[in-house]
Amino acid sequence: MRIVVLLMAFILVSPLLPSSVWARSGQRANERMPDGAYFRHETTDGVVHLNRTLTMDAIRNGYQLLDQYGRVLEDVEGVELNDAQAKAQRMKQARQAREDRDMLRLYAGPEDAERARDRRVEALELSISYEENNLAQLQAKLDDEIATAARNERAGREVPEVVKEAIDRLQRQIITAEKKLSEFDQEIDQANQQYAPIIERLEVIEKGQN
Questions:
Q1: What pTM does this model have?
Q2: Which UniProt keyword terms apply here (predicted)?
Q3: Three-class SS of residue 66?
Q4: Phi/psi at 27 (5° precision)
């Protein structure tokens, strides 16, 4: 198979890998790429082209996005597009490229993202444990103040103002503690939802590199 070499220096630092490393087709590639990455596509005459930018020929014939080491990041089948569709797809690919670049700066791979998620969840679970202990103490104090008020009422005495204030204060503190617990539960759900697509995307990128 003939290979069109666009930049010799570029080929020297970005060798092609065997076809066995090609990822499964059907995934969308990126127009705006991580540093050092490039596009590879084959035309109908059997010539393989390497480009830094995504061309219409590549979109029509199908292409792969490779990183600077020649590992496949994306593999997409060819499609027939009109100008408007091509522009929309290129914009979508550019957005995906930016998201991928940001993710790869933050996480080395899906396992790294999973560890970050787990650390966040563990921190929230620790906060829940602390707040549950605080809530139990507040409830015990409230029970004591209510018992004091009940004893005064049974004895026919007016409930002391300080006891009334303590009951009111403790009830408000309990409401606040219960609200915090609910918020912590919501934050755990949000952390799982936030990291799920990140982990999934990193798994796709990692599979494309193997």
A1: 0.56
A2: Coiled coil
A3: strand
A4: -85, 155
For residue 102, is it left (φ>0), alpha (ψ between -120 and 50) or beta? alpha
Note the pLDDT tens digit of each residue in 144-168: 999 999 999 999 999 999 999 999 9
Q: Are 92 and 99 in contact (CB under 8 A)?
A: no
Q: How far apart are CA 114 and CA 196, in angstroms?
A: 9
- Give the CA-trace dihedral at 98, 103, 108, 111, to 10 degrees: -140
- Which H or E run contains 38? strand 38-42
Where are any strands of DSSP class E within 2-150? 3-4, 38-42, 48-51, 62-66, 72-77
* List of long-range contacts for 118-121, beta carbons under 8 Å, 24+ apart: 120/191, 120/195, 121/188, 121/191, 121/192
**142 in Cβ contact with 171 (< 8 Å):** yes
DSSP of 44-58: TTS-EEEESS--HHH
